[in-house]
Automatic annotation (TrEMBL):
GO terms for molecular function: iduronate-2-sulfatase activity; metal ion binding. Transmembrane segments: none annotated. GO terms for cellular component: cytoplasm. It comes from Lentisphaera araneosa HTCC2155. Belongs to the sulfatase family. This is Iduronate-2-sulfatase. Residues 1-22 form the signal peptide. Keywords: Calcium, Hydrolase, Metal-binding, Signal. Residues 29-371 form the Sulfatase N-terminal domain. Its cofactor is Ca(2+). It comes from the Bacteria. The keyword GTP-binding does not apply.
Length: 468
């Protein structure tokens, strides 16, 4: 073999090795973790909504793995955030995710609301809420005036509309969840804008070291405050309200009713103001999306997409009049189903229809980053399933009411809810996605109920929620 041929073989072999190496995804060293507050999946365009404008989340979703059936375990901010950050169905046993990463060499930082904060009180005062300081290398709060923001104020269940800054519903007041403000400014005074700015600053400062940046945006949690340009996209007159039926006639037992309903709150007297609630919610979702876009643009500009995983989620969903119900702490789909979008370099974008739980995020990230999983973690990594579709993942997702007053499991086809007092609900989610027909008394579903009851009992035992 002459010298020229040998040289060509060596060059070809070297090129093949280099090409093979280049085709492998870069090692992921960073996590950008963004959590919204009180955001239900069904209002996002990337989850099928035809009204709300969320172009930045839509773009992220097009590049990511979108979990169509992700469910929270806790039904309000505190329990859900404690659960997902510790990967525990209930409580805070063990080491939390950011502290675990910090102990293994990551820079970890909180911007805004990650663990529970009282909104609006802790935002107005710029304080930590129920933060766990040991989680973080650094932490930053984002203050805002909230319902005291200058602009067009409304307390919609009281039918009050004013520009005056006096006598506004705020921290600890019983009507604060029905407040909206069309702010006079450009939004730069709002907490989510400040959180986006701080996140962008930190991305620039820490781009050359492994980081876990956790950014907690407070919208669309009440009060629904956003600049006028966002409200203009959702004229309340054009809003169609959810189909309204008496929850008792739907077969929903009293144990399944939330604290606030159309029948026990004056919001029920004002259908137009219910539409305004939707308009304000949409406006603050779009406003929140704008801040996410600013953050993601900076990730692109800095060239971090090749080694940074991006996780977007919400702590739980929200009722906006469905079944005549308002707010959270409820086991129906509008509360338990949440958005979960995971951009993972090296994994092709697609949609996942299998059920997933928020407790699964912690072990998925530790596996992705090559960090050991603590024994206290109860969630299950979804990475093996994403890499090999033949892997089994979950049969059901478990959610639980405060005080163990009730539980639900969501399977591919059914939602089954069982309350402490023995009442129950069953919905065929393929035929009845809005949960308008409770099948619990239907004899045709006796076997299904028995099967789901066993599944729920098994899940509760696995989660250490009942005695074995």
């Amino acid at each position: 073999m002459n010298f020229t041929v040998k040289l060509l073989i060596i060059i070809s072999f070297a090129f093949a090795i280099e090409s093979s190496y280049a085709a492998q995804p870069n090692k992921i060293k960073n996590v950008l973790f963004i959590i919204a507050d009180d955001l239900k999946a069904s209002v996002l365009a990337c989850y099928g909504d035809k009204i709300c404008q969320t172009p930045n989340l839509d773009k992220l979703a097009s590049q990511s793995i979108v979990f169509d059936r992700a469910y929270c375990q806790g039904l309000s901010c505190g329990p859900s955030r404690t659960s997902l950050m510790h990967s525990r169905y209930l409580g805070s046993e063990g080491i939390n995710l950011p502290e675990h990463l910090k102990n293994n060499g990551w820079y970890t930082v909180r911007v805004g609301k990650i663990y529970h904060m009282r909104v609006p009180y802790d935002i107005i005062h710029g304080i930590d809420g129920q933060d766990i300081p040991s989680s973080w290398t650094e932490k930053f709060n984002s203050k805002g005036a909230e319902s005291h923001t200058p602009g067009d104020y409304a307390c919609l269940n009281k039918n009050i509309f004013t520009k005056s800054l006096k006598n506004r519903e705020s921290s600890g007041m019983k009507n604060r969840m029905f407040v909206s403000v069309i702010s006079e400014g450009d939004g730069s005074d709002q907490p989510d804008v400040k959180s986006a700015e701080k996140t962008i600053e930190l991305l620039n400062q820490r781009k050359n070291e492994p980081f876990f940046i956790a950014t907690g945006l407070v919208r669309p949690h009440y009060p629904n405050v956003a600049p006028k340009e966002f409200f203009q996209n959702y004229p309340w007159e054009k809003i169609d309200l959810p189909e309204l039926r008496n929850p008792t006639s739907l077969g929903i037992p009293a144990a399944g009713h939330p604290r606030i309903t159309n029948s026990n709150n004056s919001i029920g007297k004002y259908p137009d103001n219910q539409k305004r609630m939707w308009s304000a919610y949409y406006a603050t979702v779009e406003f929140m999306d704008r801040q996410i876009g600013r953050i993601l643009d900076e990730v692109d500009r800095l060239g971090l997409k090749s080694n940074t995983a991006i996780i977007f989620l919400s702590d739980h969903g929200y009722h906006l009049g469905e079944h005549g119900f308002w707010q959270k702490n409820n086991l129906h789909e509008e509360v338990t189903r949440v958005p979960l979008i995971a951009y993972i370099p090296g994994l092709a974008p697609r949609r996942i229809n299998e059920v997933t739980e928020l407790v699964d995020i912690y072990p998925s990230l530790t596996e992705l980053l090559g960090v050991y999983k603590p024994k206290t973690v109860q969630g299950k990594s979804f990475l093996p399933f994403l890499k090999n579709k033949t892997e089994d993942f979950r049969n059901s997702a478990l959610s639980l009411m405060p005080g163990k007053k009730g539980y639900s499991i969501r399977t591919e086809d059914f939602s089954y809810i069982r309350y402490q007092n023995g009442a129950a609900e069953l919905y065929n989610m393929n035929k009845d996605p809005k949960q308008l027909v409770n099948l619990i008394q239907n004899p045709e579903h006796k076997q299904t109920i028995s099967k789901l009851d066993r599944e729920l009992n098994t899940r509760l035992k696995e989660a250490d929620l009942v005695n074995n």
